[in-house]
Amino acid sequence: xxxxxxxxxxxxxxxxxxxxxxxxxxxxxxxxxxxxxxxxxxxxxxxxxxxxxxxxxxxxxxxxxxxxxxxxxxxxxxxxxxxxxxxxxxxxxxxxxxxxxxxxxxxxxxxxxxxxxxxxxxxxxxxxxxxxxxxxxxxxxxxxxxxxxxxxxxxxxxxxxxxxxxxxxxxxxxxxxxxxxxxxxxxxxxxxxxxxxxxxxxxxxxxxxxxxxxxxxxxxxxxxxxxxxxxxxxxxxxxxxxxxxxxxxxxxxxxxxxxxxxxxxxxxxxxxxxxxxxxxxxxxxxxxxxxxxxxxxxxxxxxxxxxxxxxxxxxx
Length: 316
Fold this sequence. Notes:
- The chain is α/β, with parallel strands linked by helices and 316 residues long.
- 55% of the residues lie in helices and 8% in strands.
- It has helices at 3-9, 12-22, 36-51, 61-67, 85-95, 117-128, 148-151, 164-174, 180-186, 191-199, 202-215, 219-230, 236-254, 277-295, 300-314; strands at residues 29-33, 74-77, 105-109, 134-140, 155-158.
- A five-stranded parallel beta sheet has the order 2-3-4-1-5, with helices on one face.
- Helix 5 (85-95) links the parallel strand 2 and strand 3 (105-109).
- The longest helix is centred in the C-terminal third of the chain and has 19 residues, at 236-254.
- The mean pLDDT is 92.
């Protein structure tokens, strides 16, 4: 079984959905508030639970086709990766088509929070009164991007962040063996973030974070690294996430608790002795402030320099 399905099956959200299906109370529309990977997994599991003769055994032909995304009565949208006006018309037309094989069909709207207002408004009437044989599952990592009128027409089930320990089996399935434990800790409780780290530059950013912590000691060092960060602006926010986790771990260890990231060498951990608890807490605060500044479109150079000079000040 895919580890993501094992993870989702143990969530309260899936327990509620499964109870609704088993008790004959399946509603016409559900919103699964959680990261993209988790939302897609619970939508597929819910459809399998409803359509499988054995109640979601994950072994029969019906379950295998659903979980593989090839069942004719379980359709995923948007096609092409983006919601468009024409795509919404096709989606709405599909809602009114009869199921192909059974008495129910499911439309899975992945990343529903990426719909623009035109698409959401086009969808509203159908969302309010879909035909009885069609059930709509919406996934959204940012549910506040959905119109209140959309949110009021669905049953909301939340998938909260997972612990690093819970994420580890999934990380082992999508990461290289030597990176699984690290990326499970860096994933902020999100399978989607773990996958992004595994498929992107997670290891490279982690090494950059350690380099900053170990080598950004003087004003001249800050000036040097300022240029490097300016050349990779798109990596700044994930770099901040990694730095926050490393600094939080150091603070926990200074206080006698265990950190999340295991297996670092003595050389990689050398910087931890150079910062007091107060300095670690202050740098974590500065990182939070940096994220907020970028949200309000503050200048990147000013924001990056604030972080770098906080690292310099923390050693003094």
